[in-house]
Backbone:
């Protein structure tokens, strides 16, 4: 396994990591989660990603049960949660979502209970909250750090300007700024990592823990011949992915990428994942496999990384045509 | 129910809320309090207001008992207390009142015990304390925030200058300033909300949790024909309200307001409450009903809110003649 | 009882207070201490002064036992301790005395245990420590405040320059500076209160809790005819007082003061104590009586205070000739 | 015993101290450790030095057992640990070594457990970590100080520039900077103490707790006739010392130093240790004896200190020829 520093911090994350999103509780049972986390851990994965909203709290409870059973040394892995959406779904009341100091504080306490741990390594703001001053968010995260409940804090799907403003308040108030962002990043979603965040990478420093590195499975090639019933795209709640992703155009590109993979004698999945982590601004790509063999295949992408020569990447760019154009000035 | 952000903060309060002042322990028993809080909560009220001095601590104890029984999720409501007057009445010793760091700290510990909770969402300074530097107050509240015992702090009946000075110290010392003020506000008391605090609303931001929106019941019209025995005005300790409020002049105005209400086909109570919350600078108006039907009627004011057209408001102003004159410069 | 704000803070101390110095454990047993503290408390005394070094910790233990028995509300009195000399006497090892962060922290923990309380209201640096940077002292006291173990901190027998330097560091680092000084003050020791500290009173603010208001009993007149065996001056460890205080010159002055007292028809003790608290820069004068009647007489000094006219004070000054000369510029 | 302030701080360390490095668990059993620590403590040694990596945590466990048995007053000694290398040796995973906030925090918690104490007096960064911003290190140490888990923090084998940068961040952020450095210092290793750190000594202040004052035993003269089997140099893991130290050149110098010792009628060990602590920038020299008589002889070096006249030191310099040349500007 390769490990990378999370931005400017001293924290090291395995370049491939494992998240409970979509799969825990919704698709897999505790014993499968146990098997998958065992495979991940044994292969050097040290970052396990969560959020209060995943399966409305059930994902964290499942991961908490698995970790309690494993009895791995707490120092050997990095545990995260995220605050914003709440875990009560349609029963969410005001202050049970968002980034008020009340919800940030209460969400942290609740996540610690569900995960059966006394501190989170990383606590993410799952989305920006336009209704809460970023200064309040910075204060709230720092209070949790001072109280020993979290070690680092980050953002997810925040704009570069919002992240920069958080650092502005942190520097002015002598507090600790956000160290990491969790954006979507894959061959079809490149704007933030490859363009928007560049100034952040070069100034305050920013780690990235990217989600959906396979574009919800699209980049595995498995939808080339239709949507299988057990796949993520067929599960309730992800119908939105259909419209957005399954356009003919994207499927055509995926088929062309398959040709590149075939030439390299690797799977399209491995090619796609290797491409994501070939970007040095990516700290880790979060995997969400539901089966052991699938997870092991994903982890194999590390071996494909050396094959991504300048020529291969150029060929890929010419197929997907998603490379962001940088501003002239 | 409508929810509003408390000033610039991320905390959301129901625009109508419920307080233990006057009523708890003095007028109602625990089982009535239980019924009333149930009605409030079921109607979306999420802010329950208290103070150490209300019924000399007994109000908080009663609310603590009710909340312990209800077992509502602690994250689903916002709980406050206030420090200043102490809860021992004439037995108050030095340092058992006021805003010294000693009393602020000890009053917080005592309120947490009475309310049977581990943190307050909002802790108010119930009055300004001319004998304590505002810097000491800011420090004391921030120490409680750092220790996880309170989440936000505010003031009650402070002047605009005092609130601004608190922010001055907070900004200079890199601490958290007061987020909310609890002033009296109703058709007969408009100076602070409509004039004095305007600059605060526009600069540092300030939520308001207004008390006595019905001018101690005067604006319900129930005193138009004399003071009933069970009413608040007849209860020991509120004689001061008689002189101040029950002047003939005010009663005349109340009767004219009744005509406006009649024209709109709504109750005077609903008109008066709707008028209070029609001011966007009001975060919430605190209700203090003693009977279920009364509380339900009060909560109905939300439905009257859309009827308050510019014309209606102008007519009301011409009757009460209490609109503050803004300074020319 | 009269109460005064401790300098600029909100804390109020009774103008006459009670300390365990010299008397507790050395001269009186727990049951006498219990009686004396009861008299003091019943007469409105709310400040009980201690130090780790008094009777090498035994004074604090005795006061802790008395307070545990009394079950007075913890908010009704102000409890202090002091750090510097340690409590092991000749067995003191390095770091068991002085103002290092180690000793300040450990001395606080130990005082809390001896006094059977969870926080001190005031924690004094019993002397300046020339070997420790004042910045380290300021930090250490602030860490204890942040941890909820003390509420205010002060100094004892520090020079005005040292106190000012402590405020310099506090202001630069955004910390809380010392709020109170405990100097000796009586008709024979006036330099600090009446001259050195004037600038502090006028700028950063400074309360004073003065010790030895009766100059170790000299100003009671009881040594006019020799030293009684049970008196403080005859007790082991206070021989130093003999040389310094019992000069013929001072005894002559005391006899002349007795004439002033006789003219006013008050005791010399009351005149001397009233003179001390007639200075508005004195927050409180600490009493150390060993007998009930003695303490009650001391407390009676409050009634003598109104007799101290400008003329009486001028006569006193002309007798003692100890009034400091202020610098010309 | 002589005690010295640790740099500018108020903490006093015995000029000769005792460490668990190399010896605890590897060379000696708990009962021998108990005997040695008893001798040290009875002779006035008050600083006991540890690190997570010493015997991979076993040294700290042994010292924790000894201290638990001794029941010395916790305030009578100074306990340290160090974070950087981890304690799992080749099993160390990412984040189980280095100076990330995660490892600093977790290493502190683990050291407290092994040493059976609730706070460390000093927590050292055992090495600089080029991959972690020094700002993160400063923050992490200050968070532990604020949480009451450590009292002072320091560095070991950091460059002068790195230490100065730590103070830069501490001053900018209003935090507490590193107070002490633990470098190697002996007659053969003089560059840092006698040249590199001079500016630090003169500005921010810096204590030093030097290790290997006898150059791993070389300066005892015991290797003059070959390496004995039970010596440190023969123990597994210290082979690197052989190449570096046992050059013919050094042995020649050691033999010439033996002549100086003979002239003074003292042992070479005592001469070498006395020379180390004759430098006033040295706060303490850490001893690592394995036998009682050896430790007692080492502690005797204090008596040799007065013999180190200017002439003797000049003679020593002319033999070792290791005195650093200071920069001209």
Residues:
């Amino acid at each position: 396994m390769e490990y990378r520093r999370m931005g400017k911090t001293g924290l090291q994350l395995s370049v491939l990591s494992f998240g409970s999103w979509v799969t825990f509780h919704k698709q897999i049972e505790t014993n499968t989660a146990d098997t998958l986390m065992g495979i991940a851990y044994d292969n050097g994965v040290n970052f396990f990603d969560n959020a209060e909203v995943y399966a409305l709290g059930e994902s964290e409870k499942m991961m908490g049960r698995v970790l309690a059973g494993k009895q791995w040394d707490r120092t050997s892995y990095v545990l995260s949660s995220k605050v914003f959406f709440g875990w009560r779904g349609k029963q969410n009341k005001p202050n049970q979502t968002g980034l008020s100091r009340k919800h940030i504080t209460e969400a942290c306490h609740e996540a610690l209970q569900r995960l059966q741990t006394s501190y989170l390594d990383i606590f993410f703001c799952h989305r920006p909250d336009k209704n809460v001053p970023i200064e309040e968010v910075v204060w709230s995260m720092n209070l949790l750090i001072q109280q020993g409940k979290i070690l680092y804090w980050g953002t997810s799907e925040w704009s570069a300007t919002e992240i920069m403003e958080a650092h502005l308040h942190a520097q002015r108030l002598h507090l600790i700024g956000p160290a990491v962002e969790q954006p979507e990043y894959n061959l079809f979603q490149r704007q933030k990592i490859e363009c928007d965040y560049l100034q952040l990478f070069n100034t305050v420093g920013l780690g990235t823990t990217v989600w959906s590195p396979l574009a919800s499975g699209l980049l595995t090639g498995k939808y080339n011949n239709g949507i299988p019933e057990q796949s993520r795209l067929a599960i309730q709640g992800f119908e939105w992915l259909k419209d957005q992703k399954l356009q003919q155009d994207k499927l055509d590109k995926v088929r062309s990428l398959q040709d590149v993979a075939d030439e390299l004698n690797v799977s399209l999945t491995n090619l796609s994942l290797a491409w994501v982590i070939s970007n040095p601004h990516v700290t880790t790509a979060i995997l969400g496999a539901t089966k052991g063999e699938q997870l092991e295949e994903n982890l194999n992408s590390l071996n494909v990384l050396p094959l991504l020569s300048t020529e291969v990447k150029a060929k890929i760019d010419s197929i997907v045509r998603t490379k962001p154009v940088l501003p002239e000035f």
Q: What stands out?
A: Chain D has one domain: 3-217+267-306.
